[in-house]
Amino acid sequence: MSIMPEFRGTLLVMQGDEVLADVVAAGHTPGTRFQIASVSKQFTAAAVLLLAQRGLLRLDDRIGRWIDGCPASWDGITLHHLLAHTSGLGHWNEYPMIDLFRPLPPPELLAAFGQVPPLSAPGDRWHYSSPGYVLLAHVVARAADRPYRDVLAREFFEPLGMADTFVGSPGDRSALAQGHGPDGEPVPSYELDVVAMGAGDVWSTTGDLIRWLDGLRAGRLLDARHLGLMLAEHAATGHEPDSRGYGYGCFVGSFNGEQWFHHSGGNSGFRSFAACLPASDRRIVVLSDSEAMDGAVLNELLAAAFG
């Protein structure tokens, strides 16, 4: 295997049951918990699909069935559109009135989303939208009739033995990474309980995320139909070939000619990446508490792991 470039964080690469690389940077341990940022969207998507599998909601439900007070401009938006980022809703930069670092009551946050007209009609085009996934987390909580974080803990973390994974503010939990900016200075965290709920609110470890990928693929969480929906290409992203399209909570495409699904993430002070190449049974998880881990560093890590 090629020499891994230096980075701040932890990395785990596996093929079958064999560990191909297990890198733990100074100041961390395999049990260090990082904000996984937008990799969290895989859990949101899986929760929606699980509830659909149980008949508690439908993917073609209009968002107004589950969220009260939706503006008329959202009338055609379905859960499918939110999952595939084809709802027309914007990403965070389209909502400058929302401070990602400040707590905000849920009704105020949802009202802020409604203040900005959709960028396009539902289904017209792909546009990445974290606010769309925040809405999905609210749908999950309402359809399951319990808090979103409890749904993830009960349905995913506990069955898969993900003992180091949790949702939202850490409270007095231990083994937490501290986020750093690109210059190495500590930076404050995003608000995770409301503003980032469903979009970037999960803390985890490399080992737990491998358990997640393995449990998901093995059918321990979703049946074949709903897992197929999660990993199918629902919208073209135009990022050939590695991120050719988007499924539900994951990008799909190919890496060195082999099909894969993956997601990256970036919160204040944190960067993350998780991918699976099913044909060769290879999985990689990269977690960093530094914004210095940019796309170039990630590409080096992938080349070293899979080159």
Main sheet? 8 strands, antiparallel
Shape: globular
Helix/strand structural class? alpha+beta
Radius of gyration: 18 Å
Number of domains: 1
Question: How many H/I helical runs?
Answer: 8
Task: Give the class-level CATH name.
Answer: Alpha Beta
Please, what is the CATH homologous superfamily? DD-peptidase/beta-lactamase superfamily
> What fraction of residues sit in β-strands?
15-25%
How would you describe what is shown here?
The chain contains eight helices and eleven strands. By secondary structure, it is an alpha+beta fold. It has a single domain, classed as DD-peptidase/beta-lactamase superfamily (Beta-lactamase). It is globular and about 50 Å long. The N and C termini lie close together (8 Å).
Provide a compact summary of the structure.
Helix 1 runs parallel beside helix 4 and helix 1 (41-53) packs antiparallel against helix 7 (224-231). The chain is an alpha+beta fold and 307 residues long.
Keywords:
single chain; 307 residues; alpha+beta; Beta-lactamase; 8-stranded antiparallel beta sheet; 3-stranded antiparallel beta sheet; 11 strands; 20% strand; globular
What does the secondary structure layout of this molecule look like, with pairings?
Elements: E1 9-15, E2 18-24, E3 34-35, H1 41-53, H2 79-84, H3 106-115, H4 130-144, H5 148-157, E4 166-167, E5 202-204, H6 206-217, H7 224-231, E6 235-239, E7 243-246, E8 251-255, E9 258-267, E10 270-277, E11 282-288, H8 295-306
Antiparallel strand pairs: 1-2, 1-11, 3-5, 4-5, 6-7, 7-8, 8-9, 9-10, 10-11
